[in-house]
């Protein structure tokens, strides 16, 4: 996986050089807020290095960070903000807050940016391998939904699942995987080489369209997509489920109860499309992966 620092401006790279490699390796997010010092999220907690505490972030530095992510053009990257985030080089996701420019109820761009949350992608080769035997039934990989609150590593786990399945690790034969990578976080650019030799990636295309295109054009044995969030995503999942492919997807939620509070997921669960569920949680700073078949869920 390419270094996420290539998506950062010089002032941030210099700030990160002031902390130890151990701290850099454990960082999950960078938090930039105008008028406040840089902070990072580690094991779910925000922390500011002593060297950063007397240096507040400026509006110009926030803008420079976006320009670097957009490879010199802040306008290019701000075209993506309708979902509240943009994806920079190497699958680095940046959440944006500030003064929105709205027309007819739609967010078009930002007049002024006041906060950025930079999600740091991590490669964790092998994290999925112990889970794969639990995701099978009589040798067949089951449709699987990965669940957790935001920022817990759903995308990281999904990426490694794709890699293991493509390579035939974890007690499974190698399979062709089609990836609908709408935001460029799973297999954008050089990230594609981390997903295995039997993986085909469709980037920067809406998930619903991408899943259908992959299904019709690439004859996948497994289809994967990050963050099923819209009704059209559900319809594409329903179509794929009836075509003999295995589905891998993620969703925000810490429990079945949380999912059933939202009609979109309640209907999805009621159809029984997903037969395995992986819940990710934190225990004293360590991620815990729990696999269930959904029996007894509310």
Record the SSE blueprint.
Layout: H1 10-16, H2 21-26, E1 27-33, E2 39-42, E3 45-47, H3 59-69, H4 74-78, E4 85-88, E5 92-103, E6 106-119, E7 136-137, E8 140-141, E9 144-148, H5 154-167, E10 177-181, E11 199-203, H6 207-217, E12 222-225, H7 231-241, E13 246-252, H8 256-260, H9 263-271, E14 276-283, E15 286-292
Parallel strand pairs: 9-13, 9-14, 10-11, 10-12, 12-13
Antiparallel strand pairs: 1-2, 1-6, 2-3, 4-5, 5-6, 7-8, 14-15
Strand content: 25-35%
Indicate the low-confidence ranges by residue numbers: none
Structural class: alpha/beta
Distance between the termini: 39 Å
Alpha plus pi helix count: 9
Query: Can you write the helix and strand succession as a string?
Result: HHEEEHHEEEEEEHEEHEHEHHEE
SS elements, strand count: 15
Largest beta-sheet details: 7 strands, mixed
> What is the spatial order of strands in the main beta sheet?
11-10-12-13-9-14-15
- Gross morphology is globular
The averaged pLDDT comes out at 86
Q: What's the helical proportion of residues?
A: 25-40%
Task: Describe the protein.
This protein has 298 residues and is α/β, with parallel strands linked by helices. Helix content is 27%, strand content 30%. The protein has 9 helices and 15 strands. The protein has helices at 10-16, 21-26, 59-69, 74-78, 154-167, 207-217, 231-241, 256-260, 263-271, and strands spanning 27-33, 39-42, 45-47, 85-88, 92-103, 106-119, 136-137, 140-141, 144-148, 177-181, 199-203, 222-225, 246-252, 276-283, 286-292. The strands form 3 sheets. A 7-stranded mixed sheet has the order 11-10-12-13-9-14-15, with helices on both faces. A 6-stranded antiparallel sheet has the order 3-2-1-6-5-4. α6 packs parallel to α7. The longest helix has 14 residues, at 154-167.
């Amino acid at each position: 996986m390419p270094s996420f620092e290539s998506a950062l401006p010089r002032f941030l790279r210099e700030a990160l050089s002031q902390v130890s490699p151990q701290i850099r390796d454990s960082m999950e997010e960078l938090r930039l807020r105008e008028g406040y010092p840089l902070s990072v999220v580690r094991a779910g907690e925000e922390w500011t290095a002593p060297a950063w505490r007397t240096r507040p972030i400026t509006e110009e530095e926030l803008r420079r960070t976006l320009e670097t992510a957009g490879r010199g053009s802040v306008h290019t990257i701000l075209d993506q903000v309708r979902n509240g985030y943009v994806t920079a080089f190497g699958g680095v996701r940046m959440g944006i807050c500030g003064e929105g420019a709205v027309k007819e109820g739609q967010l078009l761009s930002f007049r002024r940016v006041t906060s950025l949350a930079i999600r740091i992608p991590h490669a964790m080769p092998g994290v999925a391998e112990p889970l794969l035997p639990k995701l099978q039934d009589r040798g067949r990989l089951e449709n699987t939904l990965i669940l957790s609150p935001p920022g817990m590593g759903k995308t990281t786990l999904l990426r490694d699942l794709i890699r293991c399945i493509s390579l035939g690790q974890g007690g499974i034969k190698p399979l062709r995987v089609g990836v609908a990578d709408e935001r460029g976080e799973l297999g954008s650019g050089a990230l594609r080489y981390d997903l295995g030799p039997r993986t085909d990636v469709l980037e920067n295309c809406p998930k619903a369209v991408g899943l259908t295109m992959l299904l019709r054009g690439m004859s996948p044995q497994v289809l994967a997509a990050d963050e099923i969030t819209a009704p059209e995503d559900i319809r594409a999942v329903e179509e794929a489920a009836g075509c003999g492919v295995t589905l891998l997807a993620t969703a925000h939620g810490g429990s079945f109860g949380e999912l059933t509070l939202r009609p979109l997921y309640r209907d999805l669960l009621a159809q029984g499309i997903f037969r395995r569920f992986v819940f990710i949680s934190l225990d004293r700073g360590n991620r815990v992966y729990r696999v269930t078949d959904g029996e007894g869920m509310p």
